[in-house]
User: Fold these one by one.
Assistant:
Number 1:
Amino acid sequence: MDKIITLAEKERCTGCGACKETCPKGAISFLPDQEGFPSPVIDDEKCIRCGMCEKACPALHLPETHAIQAAYAAQINDEAALKDSTSGGLFTAFAREAFRRDGVVYGCVWDDEYHAVIRKAENEEEIKPMRGSKYVWSWAGDAFPEIKAYLESGRTVLFTGLPCQAAGLKSYLKKDYDNLLLVDCLCSGAPSPMALDLYLDTICKKEDRKNLNLKFRDKDPYGVGVHITYTGKKKRIKKGEHIRNPYYWSFYTRLVDRESCYQCPYGSGDRVSDITIGDFWGISEYHQEFKVRDGVSALLVNSDKGKQFLAGLTPGLNLSETDPMNIAKENNLFIGNRKRNIHKPLNRADFFSVLKEKGWKAAERRFLFTKGRMLRMVYTALPARGAKLIRKIVR
Ligand SMILES: Cc1cc2nc3c(=O)[nH]c(=O)nc-3n(C[C@H](O)[C@H](O)[C@H](O)COP(=O)(O)OP(=O)(O)OC[C@H]3O[C@@H](n4cnc5c(N)ncnc54)[C@H](O)[C@@H]3O)c2cc1C
């Protein structure tokens, strides 16, 4: 009897693409599921039941992990790059070090249709679109075979992405390479590309997307914070506090995360990558030596390889060693149990079914703008005297 191939179930599949890229017969494709997350589909006609896809799946076989060795607060020594980055600009500092070693860099960019994908950069110009967090699930799989070829040829490769993507790449490669540096982000969850797509439809037509310049956390003019900014066709610039932006709100409340994110085994405890980067929220309480307004990163060194890499680039960074608990306090993501359980909103399934059937605006009206929030929005939009009056009425 033929062997039955069983890939990770929906609750565990992160869509890393390791199974697809490993299949010797090209029998696996990725198609969007009901919630818009690309997921593996096996073509039974092409499948030869070799089981290589199962072996490459990080959800079925967790790759080797490292305990955190040291933690730092860090900021790049380059004002322009810092302004353009989401937090302390560590990605740019790491990419520069990789180029100094004649390496290639892999990071996340928007494609022409505003889908987030992992691509290659070979110089300073090509890393610019990689800067900035794209708060949406991204596709990494296509890059894996190319990365393997670079590694085999002896070139240094810096891979930067989500923890599940780092796990996927590690599983795909099957062995460690001295010339590979894996960097992952502290990650709270990856939202549905379909949700972002439908939200963007409310801003501009599909054919105008090329004129869109979407930035989730523009530091201008507020300094580091959580904002969504876009420059539309008529150069109209909208800036909104995160709380007033419906897409950001859906991300922030974990409504649109991939199913696997709620029990992610890569985002807490020991790490699959050599280095982990994130935001150092609440830094003023512990370190006064940084210009907090422009963003300070949290940096975790998880392996000896990561330690050596960091030693090479420290002149380009301001670094202060810190207790990992200082980072964990306001960023409760990497401590505690290996299996992180993030609360899945009870109305998540209903949100997706309304989103799919009736579109973004209908889902937004029903799930994202409750009465209380509407009142709060009116209240914060009013000048102080008006706000006092409203407060009296609401009481
Ligand atoms: C979905 C998501 C959730 C996150 N959640 C948290 C969190 O809860 N707490 C926290 O401290 N930090 C979180 N981060 C990380 C944080 O937002 C910054 O990306 C990180 O601190 C790097 O900042 P930087 O200034 O060094 O790099 P930047 O120059 O801003 O570069 C961004 C880096 O992130 C990578 N990246 C951006 N978007 C994606 C994506 N969609 N998929 C894969 N890689 C991507 C790029 O490849 C690049 O390496 C999250 C990032 C993402 C993408």
Number 2:
Amino acid sequence: MSFIIEMLNITKDFPGIRANDNVTLQVEKGSIHALLGENGAGKSTLMSILFGLYEPDAGSIRVRGEPVIINNPNIATQLGIGMVHQHFKLVHNFTVTENIILGLEPRQGLSIDIKKASLKVAELSKLYSLDVDPFSKIEDISVGMHQRVEILKMLYRDAEILIFDEPTAVLTPQEIHELMAVMRRLVEEGKTILLITHKLKEIKAVADICTVLRRGKLINTVEVKNTDEAAMAEMMVGREVSFSVDKSPAKPGEVVLEIEKLNVKNSKGLLAVKDLSLSVKKGEILGLCGIDGNGQTELIQALTGLTKIESGSVKILGKEVASLPVRQRLDMGLGHIPEDRHRHGLVLDFRLDENLVMHSYGHLPYAHYGVLDFYAIRKNAERLIKEFDVRAGQGPDTLARSMSGGNQQKAILAREIDRSPEAFIIAQPTRGLDVGAIEYIHKRIVAERDKNKAILLVSLELDEILNVSDRIAVIYDGMIVGIVDTDKTDEYELGLMMSGSLRKAV
Ligand SMILES: Nc1ncnc2c1ncn2[C@@H]1O[C@H](COP(=O)(O)OP(=O)(O)O)[C@@H](O)[C@H]1O
Ligand SMILES: [Mg+2]
């Protein structure tokens, strides 16, 4: 057996935390090797060590059997190791080719280099069926394409060992499917892949070997074909995990959120939500599913007051709110768990305690006559951190930016649930989170329903919609094309509605 990569007994400390604790990882040439673990398990740290971004405090690395010291990314590149990071690093007003050659030797006149480079990019794109146009500008192509540009960047530098850090977190189901095919193609051409993920389905679909980390420690390395999702989940979380959500049938009451003939334009000035009507009752979760880009984002923004509406009505408990500003809607009983945690959910450079009073800091008990009461703000944070199991290294003082995605999401959930709104707009609540956090968040959403709140759950994850919702509405091209009871439908029927080929009585 030949290992192309061996990381032996690696330990890495950060202030206050051992991110990797005596971890050994051996990767066979030509395999897809998954690195599985919850948020904060130490996956990115281990791969950053391999890529030369951090130096380990203890342990050694061998590449192709040779002992190496990788103390910067250039050395990793020379060794044929490439990494696609969680957040892409592309220059938006540059072309694909310009981005790919950025940082490489600009020896000849730039124009000649670019011509040659774009030919090579086109060739690589063809070889791996990436379908990337070397001359497109980054700002004009999709997120899925951005990722392919990052892949090409590695291939252009002749990388043989490709590290993908949570590559599917930013992709649609369709794009995920395509990425899996690209990975298989890469391996066929002799590459080796290290795939960081916490999605078990993806590991089952594409990986050969899986190494599980938990809280910095190596738990096990297993052959994927000899294990199942439940076993991997248990290794990852350290206990049994339930994939289905425990809930009793809904007992819906009066209508809380009523949307009538709503029309909303998108940023290009085109109608994105068309004559849309929906109502959500007390004590029910209405799931809204659809393929990304069918008006979901515009609908959420219009409901929460982030975008103005063209026409139509939005009522909370019978009161019209369509023309009210965000804050007044919140005060009238609207809660919002936003789609984009970073843009609308948290202020990343603020502390956790400040983020936890973001919507209520103007009121008692957090302010008296306009003066903030830091003691009350801190007490509030301590209470919510405990109740919602938010893991933050420095407690209330932790900067939001330094928290993991799952814990940022728990913080938003804590803040919004604690305000106890009557109607909740919850968008993509578990995007990019691990199974443990997903399970927790689903439970809390159902618990809010059982406190008689009205919940509109917008998600691109069909599994999530089917597991959590009581009724499901399907949006296609800005319109509701069907509303069905969850126990009377399935993935197949929803898929047909989502693609616009089936309508069911609305
Ligand atoms: N640069 C850093 N400084 C301090 N702590 C860090 C740093 N990078 C990661 N950590 C901490 O190390 C632990 C492991 O993080 P990480 O490797 O990013 O986990 P994963 O990728 O599995 O989510 C976490 O507790 C994280 O907060
Ligand atoms: Mg990570």
Number 3:
Amino acid sequence: MELKLSSELAEDLKSAPTPCYVVDERLLIKNLLLLESLRVRTGCKVLLALKAFAAFSLFPLIRNYLDGVAASSLDEARLGREEFAKETHIFSPAYSEREFGQILSLGDHIVFNSFSQWKLFRTSALAMREQKRFAIRVNPEHSEVKTALYDPCAPFSRLGVTRANFEPEQLEGISGLHFHTLCELNSDSLVRTIEAFESKFGEFLPRMEWVNFGGGHHITRPGYAIDLLCSAIDRFKAKYGLEVYLEPGEAVALNCGFLAASVLDIVQNGMNIAILDASAATHMPDVLEMPYRPEIAGAAPPGVLPYTYRLGGPTCLAGDIIGDYSFQEPLSVGSKLVFFDMAHYTMVKNNTFNGVRLPSILVRKKEGGLKMVREFDYEDYLGRLS
Ligand SMILES: Cc1ncc(COP(=O)(O)O)c(C=O)c1O
């Protein structure tokens, strides 16, 4: 069954210059209200993982519902501190000595991926212990993610300290433990992960003040078992008396964005091939990396509707293919296509390979109408090179 746009949204998008991302405030608020209800029900804190979604013109809205941000680099930390201006948590697999001073001044919660990094930076960190809290990321060695690329608990993972490498005698100054093991998963996966976490690291929890259950919780997906998540958090808090943090990225912006594209040309080579002004390689890289097949308004799998096309991007990469889709009417030059669920892991991951320009960013305001918040030009390409 093909997905359709509401007539109001379709009307709004008619005027959008392509290619462009459109983030819909009303859809975002729907997700944020659910995340806020989780905070209210359980007393847990919820952070926005900036790696997934960092459209900062929306931070004034998002900050009304969430506690802060989870950053994974110096620049994300600065964005979070300056533009979100609530709690700033930072985790990186390794901090450089050059950057650590700034990391320390920007973050209020800093998570270390190893005891060697903790020992390297401990003296400067502890000089700030009145204002900052520090944690170790642990690896519960319990895999729930089926794709190795996204499984932080896969064999030989560099992410998090395993129990065998944990150094309890180095915990002075550490007030938290962090794990991140999930990707697009339901709360039963978290429950099993907490069990593994407790069995390996539970003995250290009485010495802690807080834990962070990471991201990968698909909380805003229809069918997500939120009651089970709430009971898992309630039980954990009651047992250990700790603050619980979650740092979802995708769940914050799930199903609230679109990518609008236009057909530039139609060519034939054994089938009809439409070349778009939007590219898988540059504008929706997860289509190739995950990989996955994005939904398009009014389109169905190939052969279902009368007109089938392979959709490709304007780069010279042979594999810049979005997929094969069928449509009720034939496509022609200028036809507009709208891809669903394009807010998360798109704007933060896109690139200017081939000099292809980045899509503009528009916001669909809750009171109606589209607002252009960012347009890109030659200077943005030039600025990345020298
Ligand atoms: C440490 C950490 N926290 C949070 C996230 C956010 O995950 P998601 O966007 O799947 O919720 C990630 C994603 O890779 C991560 O590595």
